[in-house]
Amino acid sequence: MARVATRTTNAGAGRVDPTLRTRLDERAHDTRAFLETHATSIARLCEAMAERFAAGGRLMACGVAPTARSDVRRVAVEFVHPVAVGKRALPALGLTGECGPLSLQIDLTARPDDIILAFPQGGECEPILAETLEVARSRGCLTVSFGAGGEWNFAPTSRDPFVRQELVEALHHLLWEMVHPFLERTARLEREGEGRHRDPGARGRMPLLPATQPDADGVLESVRNAVLARAAEVAELRERTVLGSAAALAAAAAGLRRALDGGGTVLAVGNGGSATDAMDAVADLRTPPHGWPARSALDLVEDTAVLTGLANDIGADAIFSSQVIAYGRPGDALLAFSTSGDPRNIIRALDEGRRRGLFTVALVGGDGGRIADEVLAHAVIISPSQHIPRIQEAQATAWHLLRELMERPQ
Hints:
Blueprint: E1 4-5, H1 18-54, E2 59-62, H2 66-80, E3 92-95, H3 102-109, E4 115-118, H4 126-138, E5 142-145, E6 152-153, H5 161-191, H6 216-244, H7 246-261, E7 266-269, H8 273-286, E8 297-299, H9 304-313, H10 321-327, E9 333-337, H11 344-355, E10 359-365, H12 369-373, E11 379-383, H13 388-406
Parallel strand pairs: 1-11, 2-3, 2-4, 4-5, 5-6, 7-8, 7-9, 9-10, 10-11
């Protein structure tokens, strides 16, 4: 089986499917319009969130729809496990309905200083979200939504569910990035005896922001300007990813479609935030939009008992390859997400998949790492950046476009 690995950002640029360019232009417009519309509100929300974090509050992300669950898990891992060196971990929980109704979980666990981040549900799930937000407000929580019902509401206007999800992801990445300047200001004022709250963990600086600013309005304006700058960054990396890996995207779409049409299953893997990309990919295959057919897919990051059992008894490097051995069959496909291209457990899974006759696809960041350098997947799609939130945003677009390419009439 032929392998395709994209090593440069302009590979295949002269033979790009015109639909990809159209989709990128639409996303650039929608992202710019969305962030420009909400830039001031995002800055003020980050200030309000920082006040609650500094007072001991927690962030609780909520959602029960298949794609919303991946967003919930992404928020939890990214706030608790910060990717920027020197940034403090912030308390965040993901509530997705496994332990009972969301409204009951909020009623039992929420405290007045907490922040509730509610992801869009759609259809019959909307009453669940409305009830959850009502309970949260009654507890004194700050409520944020991406559709309706929150004290702070950011509703994407795109009709494309993939684009709406990408806008929401860009926004909650910004909330994580931009809450830190306000936490740093709170900590500085506390050290100077002027702050109301104690925040001993804050340190370092956010990119694109000036050093220290004691003036609250100055921090707000800096954050607002940084939000506006993000739209151009997101669009630029999406373009470099999609156009630079156009040949690999086409090969991946053809290989995944061939596997699924032949009765195969897509197995998806990733670590941390990339694990939530795997969750989202499986949701997009099992419960697709646009009237597309449901496809067979397994989320190899879903079962915590399997993951922790393998990690404890065999080692973390085997948590995915062991599952490929257990579930993978010739004719299946393996879809891997990584922001570096170097995780040993992903590399071992890809190796095992190829040995067992699976078609392998990897979406990677940076320079592609070992996965691209050693051509460890049949199709490698590279997001050439070192900034993890931007990589993940570009990978979300690349996956959604890949998903669209898979369903084109043959």
